[in-house]
Amino acid sequence: MGPRVTYNAAVRPSDFDFPLPEELIAQTPAPVRDQARLLVLRRATGERAHRRFRDLPDDLRPGDLLVLNDSRVIPARLRGVTVPQGGPLEILLLSESAPNDWWVMTKPGKRARVGTTIAFRNRNGEATGVQGRVLETNAEGHRRLIFTGVSNTLEALGDLGEVPLPPYIRRSPSDDLSRDLERYQTVYARAAGSVAAPTAGLHFTPETLDQIRARGVGIAFVTLHVGLGTFAPVKAERLEDHVMHAERFHVSEDTAQAVNAARREQRRIVAVGTTTMRVLESLARSGGEIVAGAGQTNLFIHPPWRFQVAGALVTNFHLPRSTLLMLVSAFAAPEGTGGRDLMLAAYAEAVRERYRFFSYGDAMLIQ
Predict the structure, then answer these.
(1) 323-332 vs 339-352: helix crossing angle, rounded to 10
(2) Pairing outcome for strands 269-272 and 65-69
(3) Environment class of residue 222 by beta-carbon count within 10 Å: exposed (0-12), middle (13-18) or buried (19+)?
(4) Residues 6 or more apart from 98 whose CB is under 8 A from it?
(5) Rounded Cα gap, residues 254 and 11, in angstroms
(6) pTM recorded for the entire structure
(7) Is 122 exposed, middle or buried (0-12, 13-18, 19+ CB in 10 A)?
(8) Cβ atoms 190, 79 nearer than 8 A
(9) What structural domains and CATH numbers belong to the chain?
(10) In the chain, what's the furthest Cα-to-Cα distance?
């Protein structure tokens, strides 16, 4: 049987609001990745413990399989001017339809009407010879751009683009983003394509991963290219009216075999991040074993949900009313709706204990 996806009228998006002091929104990463704090939540009892992320190996056991998302964040924020008017524009790449064919967000949008040509600047504000032409817009106000003057836009982003930090991380145009370039990326990032980091993985160091392997824990990777829709708050009044943005994923044969073996042998699978969880649950929906390959998922996981793969989840502290908070609430109490209360109580304690929230913030282990 697949997961339970029946909407419960008693569960509303507004139920996932919570108060958060603005000063707890992390503006910078921890000095060292694994020095971030770690709140451990035991689902069966509601018991909570306060640790550091470097202590995570102590909560893993021999035979566990840790699954991480190895997508690499691309420098997806571009700057340019309209031609010939010279009006400045900020462009955020969203998804690649084909080489040099991208859906983007533009700011201000009114300057990027269909037919508009944009001349792109590099990070120093210098002309590059790269241009984009707006072909169409969609219902969400996104623009489809065709790039010229470059053989492959993705490969040119090292010169053109900036780190696509979320809007709640504030930087001025004069700030040095070199540290963000390193820290808004996991140490195991491989396949380029995300426009936002799979943030649960930001806390891992090579040393942490070595310690995990030394405990007899297996490590496997999936790839899901994270889009901005993952972090968007649910604005609809009813869960069934919210539509998730589709995101591309890939699972290798080695990972499929590792996950299937762990499931057959009833060994615990630990998903690192909500993106990893969504890939695993998407592949498990058809029943049977996980099959290697590529695809897209717009799976919306919310209470109540019967999880089929992972027995533990490493995650960050998420935005109010976000689909991410709904997912972790579902995981806190599978097949029920009580996980919301568990999570909001944990979040309230995290606020009292001055944990740091969102992308550069601290971590949770739910097991």
Answers:
(1) 110
(2) parallel
(3) buried
(4) none
(5) 38
(6) 0.93
(7) middle
(8) no
(9) 13-73+184-366 (3.40.1780.10), 77-160 (2.40.10.240)
(10) 64
Q: Among 306, 308, 280, which Cα is nearest to 295's?
A: 280
Question: How far is residue 160's CA from residue 155's CA, in Å, rounded to a whole number?
Answer: 10
Query: How many Cα atoms within 13 Å fall on the side-chain side of residue 78?
Result: 31
Q: Kindly give, in sequence order, each residue whose CB lies less than 8 Å from that of residue 291, ignoring residues fewer than 6 positions away.
A: 251, 256, 283
220 φ, ψ to 5°?
-135, 160
User: In this structure, which amino acid lies at residue 106?
Assistant: T
Percent of the chain with pLDDT strictly greater than 90: 84
Would strands 143-148 and 65-69 be described as parallel, antiparallel, or unpaired?
unpaired
Phi-psi region of 335 (alpha: psi -120 to 50; beta: other; left: phi over 0): left
The tokens describing 245, both together, are 């943005």
208: amino acid identity, one letter = T
**pLDDT score, position 201:** 98
Average pLDDT (16-26) is: 97
Determine if residue 66 is left, alpha or beta; phi over 0 gives left, psi from -120 to 50 gives alpha, anything else beta: beta
The length of the chain, given as a count of residues: 367
Q: Which of 230, 310, 260, 340 is nearest to 8 (CA)?
A: 340
What angle separates helix 323-332 from helix 274-284, to the nearest 10 degrees? 70
- Going by C-alpha positions, the residue among 278, 206, 270, 258 that lies closest to residue 64 is 270
Q: In this predicted model, what pLDDT tens digit does every residue of 154-195 receive, in sequence order? A: 999 988 999 999 999 999 877 888 899 999 999 999 999 999
CA-CA-CA-CA dihedral for 109, 113, 118, 122, to nearest 10: 10
